[in-house]
Amino acid sequence: MRPMQGRAVLISGAGSGLGRAIAIRIAAAGGHPVVGDINDAAARATVEMIENAGGSASPARLDVTDSVVVRQVVQATAEQFGPSFDGLVNNAGTDQGAGLLDISDEQWSAVLAVNQSGPLFLSREFLRTLDVSKPREFPADVVNVISISAITVGADAAAYNSSKAALAMLTKVMQREAYEYGWPVRIHGLMPSAMNTPMMEQWHLSNEVMMAPDTVAGAVEYMMTLPPDSFVQNLVINSRREPGWPR
Questions:
Q1: Which of 20, 117, 132, 140 could disulfide-link 86, Cβ–Cβ 3.0 to 4.6 Å?
Q2: Distance CA 86, CA 38 (A)
Q3: Are 7 and 225 a contacting pair, CB within 8 Å?
Q4: Nearest to residue 50, comparing CAs of 32, 77, 76, 73?
Q5: What residues have CB less than 8 Å from 179, skipping those under 6 apart?
Q6: Beta pairing, strands 32-37 & 58-61
Q7: φ and ψ at 228, to 5 degrees?
């Protein structure tokens, strides 16, 4: 297995929920998470939790919908950590539930900007920092946190389901280009079902049927520590406590 020790990993949306759980996992394994979040206070709170537990982390104000900000954050991280910056987790996501007749232009645009454009902006800038001319002992890692909603259908979720389906296809494109162009990077896809995070509060699901964020964070750590000759093309994680395909 590939060690996490000494690796710097940029995580979007790491100020709470799943992103925070991923950052804590990576830090506990010896990595240095760069906690990206549009909420400065939330990012600093995650860093403080990690440092209080004996790990290392740093905050970064990150608006994934702004390609200029994304470029600045990625370049600053690359300048600070050099070759040890070899991990990206596209975790930031948003959901503004509304039916087809009620969803506003602003709601639609906001969800697609975070869930679809954000991973593209971040992945593009991250891949541009990799020196493809030099051999690497281990490939870099990109984990796209998609959602089981990419392959399910739910009422009042047109924007979210559509954006996640688009991210699933983008992940396939990234995987194909990484292979055909010989990039020193692995692109992993992850489709979790409902987790007990603040974003799920609007759907009023029972806590008993949702997964703990740390369960999915463990899957992210697993992907990033696989031997260099393998990657996770697409991993669906579902709760056994909910029949069928929950949100």
A1: 140
A2: 22
A3: no
A4: 32
A5: none
A6: parallel
A7: -65, -15
Say what the pTM is. Answer: 0.92
Q: What superfamily in CATH does domain 8-237 come from?
A: NAD(P)-binding Rossmann-like Domain (3.40.50.720)
Structure tokens given for 173: 């494109």
- Let me know: does 146 contact 189? Beta carbons within 8 Å: yes
Q: Which two three-digit tokens encode residue 63?
A: 């608006």
**Which residues are bridge partners to 61 per DSSP?**
37
Question: In this predicted model, what pLDDT tens digit does every residue of 56-115 receive, in sequence order?
Answer: 999 999 999 999 999 999 999 999 999 999 999 999 999 887 888 999 999 999 999 999
Q: How distant is the alpha carbon of residue 17 from its chain centre?
A: 11
- Residue-range domain boundaries for the chain: 8-237
Nearest to 140 by CA among 77, 194, 183: 183
